Amino acid sequence: FAAEGWGEEAREKCKEIFWFLHTRVRERVRGALSRITTQSERTRQFQATTRSARAKWVRAKVNTSPQPKITAIYGVILLKRSRKSNLTF
After folding, report:
1. pTM for this entry
2. 57 with 88, same domain?
3. Do both 1 and 32 map to the same domain?
4. Is the pLDDT of residue 24 over 70?
């Protein structure tokens, strides 16, 4: 160990951490740890997608949603409200 003044405990702890991380990386590469993650599959998929691709997907989703129906219903509600407000006693 190059660092002088380190005790035996510190050296052993460093070795332990090194081998723990080394083993995890090897298992990850092998595919053994691919399912053991803290992130959900959806989160990883979201992160893997580029920002421009997400923007295109959102625009396409908005363009295919049934907005005319919602607008028509909202227009009827506005029409009813305006008729009620025009009534005078």
Report:
1. 0.26
2. yes
3. yes
4. yes
